[in-house]
Structure formats: structure tokens, C-alpha cells
Amino acid sequence: MKKTLLNTLLDNLKTIIYALIIAVIIRSLFFQPFYIPSSSMEPNLLIGDRIFVSKYTYGYSKHSFPFSPSIYNKRIFFKGPEVGDLIVFKTPQDNRTDYIKRLIGLPGDTIQFINGNLYINEKVIIREKIKSTYKIKCGSNNFDTNTYKETLPNGRSHITAYRKEGTMMNSEKYVVPTNHYFFLGDNRDCSKDSRFLNSVGYVNELNLVGEAKIIFFSNDTTKNSILKFWNLNNSFRLERLFKKI
User: Fold this and answer.
1) In the chain, N or C terminus with fewer CB closer than 10 Å?
2) Catalytic residue among 55, 90, 101, 137
3) Is-catalytic flag, 199?
4) How many domains does the chain have?
């Protein structure tokens, strides 16, 4: 009897260990789920969105694995990202915190805001206003914004939001170093990104974690916690389920 019980416990333990190993492999090499906690990527990503990020798109570095083990300080199978990609990366400040932003500048590019317009390599980015008033969250506040369809030099388009009052009109000229990238949040006036050189700044290619691919679940946490599952019908964003990013 004792032997049978011991064998059962060992079998269950083996099953748990195998499951954990498989989960770590999938998370490290293929896909990892992430939660969107802030409004910095509105209107494209909302607080409460849960997304899958592909880990293989740009190859692998130590940040592809749990706890970022310092076993190899290069990327393997590296494929360079494209301007316009939505990318999760480890912040240079601590190499631990995950941020998600849109890639705007490649190594050697210059980035600058002039009179409220975004310039990449001295050329203004074409943008088309699509809404004159759009409420955007910033922390606990809501602000009126203008939203635009911006088209990057490679032809890729996305939606951005700029506050009607207090928007960034002019900035210094940013020159992206070798092996680094420049990121912006789509909610341009409520995003800590590469414009803040002391906290985020230019992101080393080693810090790239993966590319955001799909929203697999979304719950408006301002209305209801996911833990209160009996009230999900009041906050569950059905239209965002399995939405391609």
C-alpha cells in the first residue's frame, strides 16, 4: 500500500515536472503571454489586453529565457526588426522590466519632433487625422486627443494619439546608435519611451524579447476585475478576442 502510494506521488511529481519543462520551452522559444497594464499604447492596445508575443521573430538572447540568465551575451538566429513592429523589450534601466512600444528608429536613424510633427531621417512622417476628439487615458485621467493614421517610410501605418493641449511640439534630435533601436508609444503624450534617455532611451538589440502578434483576451479592469468572473459580461471586450495586432 505504501509503495503504491509512493509510486503514485512520484508519477504525479514527474508529470508536473514534465509539464513545467514543456511550458518553459514554449515560453522561451515560441510564445509568451503578456498583460497590458498601462495606456501608453492606446488606442491600439488597451489596459487589460492580454497578448501573445512571438519569441522567435528576432532570434534569441538571454532575455528570451526566464530570469535572463547571463550565459551568452549575444543574439542567435538574429533577424532585424522592421520599423512599425510592436515589440516587447527589457528596459535598459534595469534589464528586467518588460515594456511594449512601437519601433520607430533603426540603428543610424535620426528622430525628431518639429512643430508637433514626427521626422525620421529629416523627412516628415505623413499623417492623416481620423478623429478630432478622442478620449485617451493617462493614468487616472482622461484627455481629449487628436488621432491620426501615421504612415512610416516603409509604408506601414498605425494609429497614434496626440493631446489637444500640452502635446510635445519640439524635441532634441535623437541619433540611434549602432545595435540599438528607438521606440515610441502610440499614446504619444502618455508614454515613457526612447525620448526619455535617462530611463528608457535607446534599446540594445539584446534587450528585444519578441513581437506582439495577437490579443487573446481583453477585460476592462476599470470596470471589473478578472477575478470577479461572474461580472465579466460587464467588462469583457468580446470584439478584441483573438484580434491580430
Assistant:
1) N
2) 101
3) no
4) 1
Query: pLDDT tens digits, the chain, 245 residues: what are they?
Result: 556 877 778 878 888 898 888 888 888 889 999 999 999 999 999 999 999 999 999 999 999 988 898 888 899 999 999 999 999 999 999 999 999 999 999 999 999 999 999 999 999 999 999 977 788 889 888 899 999 999 999 999 999 999 998 888 999 999 999 999 999 999 999 999 999 999 999 999 999 999 999 999 999 876 655 555 555 666 889 999 999 99
Active-site annotation holds for 39: no
Could you check whether the bond before residue 43 is cis, i.e. omega within 30 degrees of 0? Answer: yes
Which is the catalytic residue, given 40, 64, 191, 218? 40
- How far is the CA of 182 from the CAs of 87, 120, 186, in angstroms? 11, 11, 13
Dihedral angle sign, alpha carbons of residues 25, 217, 90, 126: positive
Domain that holds residue 228: 2-244
Domain of residue 14, CATH code? 2.10.109.10
